Amino acid sequence: MKRTCTWTVLGLAALVGAAWASAPTPGDAKGEEVTLGGFKSRVPSAWKMEQPGNKLRAYQFRVPKAEGDKEDAELVVFFFGQGGGGDTDANIKRWKTQFQPPKGKTIDEVSRVEKYKVGKVEVVCLDIQGTYLAKFPPNDPNAKVTAKADYRRFNAIFDTDQGAYFITFTGPAKTMAQNKAGFDNWIKSFK
User: Fold this and answer.
1) What domain range is 161 assigned to?
2) How far apart, in whole angstroms, are the C-alpha atoms of residue 31 and residue 181?
């Protein structure tokens, strides 16, 4: 069943304000260039490239926290090779299990899936928020889970002819709101 999202004028004003606050200023230096399956785009200049934590991470960035947040956000681009990483529905289902919705809400009420094309590339994005169930190592069933309240994640599957790239951008909700426009612009700017 599809959900229709409606925004109040106040909510829309808050989003526009957050996007304006995180938008690069004129003359701002370009960020690092990222290449996904032959397509290129530059991240916002405030995003700091890091050495990937393992061989499945094609790129890794630290995104500075918003004032009042306790932690920076992290953006990771995973690549498992042609045909690797599972299908879109399985990934969306798995990503949803990594969050608990706020009391009185369902996970579907705090999630939004958007599908669009960037050139000929199919892109599927999941925007989800609630309590993030951080686990390290992520796929270890015995790993300790740390519950991080008021978190948000933007996931994207960027499906090129060379294989799908899986993007996770996770952090405190305020930091993520300030970086939503930058994330969307980065994804939509791949050429």
Assistant:
1) 28-188
2) 15
How many structural domains is the chain composed of? Answer: 1
Residue 94, both tokens: 């798995």
What are the two backbone dihedrals, phi and then psi, of residue 54, each rounded to the nearest 5 degrees?
Answer: -160, 175
CB 113 within 8 A of CB 2: no
The pTM score is: 0.83
The tokens for 156 are: 């994207």
Condensed to tens digits (0 to 9), the pLDDT of residues 107-142 reads 999 999 999 999 999 999 999 999 999 988 777 888
Is residue 19 in a domain?
no
In a domain, 14, yes or no: no
Q: Tell me 66's DSSP state.
A: P
Residue with tokens 């994640």: 153
Rg, C-alpha atoms of the chain: 16
CB contact at 8 A, 98 and 107 = no
Q: Which H or E element spans position 114?
A: strand 111-118
